[in-house]
Design goal:
single chain; alpha+beta; 2 helices; 9 strands; nine-stranded antiparallel sheet; about 20% helix
Length: about 160
């Protein structure tokens, strides 16, 4: 991991997240049977988000620097109240809120964002090297969707 600065890594992760799921990026070939995959590359970095499911889903994001995996995050999200929030509505809230968060050039540190379809809240502990968190959406004070995530640096 020579010449890998955490500042450059975090900036790349924010760009990658903005260009892929939040930005409705183009899908790439599935890396595993049944997965949906998104990819972003810039300079010495490459990123892949690979997940399974839709309304309820599980996935993993990985960043490579010069071909070596250096950072990853796993996540599981689900709609708690399917009768009150569709997967399309959930996706709209998430994409709008995540786009607003990434405009701040970060993805950790907590965030709240009100949308027409509900409130998005993200809470987390740690920093880029080791973190875990919970995001959710709510409407009228009722939590309708949740996602748990964790990740950090990868070392050989």
């Amino acid at each position: 991991m020579d010449e890998l600065s955490l500042e450059h890594l975090e900036a790349f992760i924010v760009k990658a997240k903005t260009a892929t799921y939040a930005g409705s990026g183009a899908l790439v070939d599935s890396s595993r049977s049944g997965s949906t995959d998104l990819r972003f590359e810039e300079g010495d970095f490459s990123y892949r988000d690979s997940y399974f499911g839709g309304a309820d889903f599980i996935g993993e994001e990985v960043v490579w620097h010069r071909g070596e995996p250096v950072w990853a995050m796993n996540y599981y999200g689900y709609i708690r109240e399917p009768g009150k929030l569709s997967d399309e509505e959930s996706g709209k809230v998430l994409k709008e809120s995540l786009t607003a968060l990434y405009r701040e050039e970060r993805f950790l540190g907590g965030f709240r964002h009100q949308t027409a379809l509900g409130l998005y809240v993200d809470t987390n502990e740690g920093e880029l090297t080791c973190f875990h968190g919970l995001e959710w959406t709510e409407r009228d004070g009722e939590r309708l969707y949740e996602l748990r995530y964790h990740g950090g640096m990868i070392r050989a």
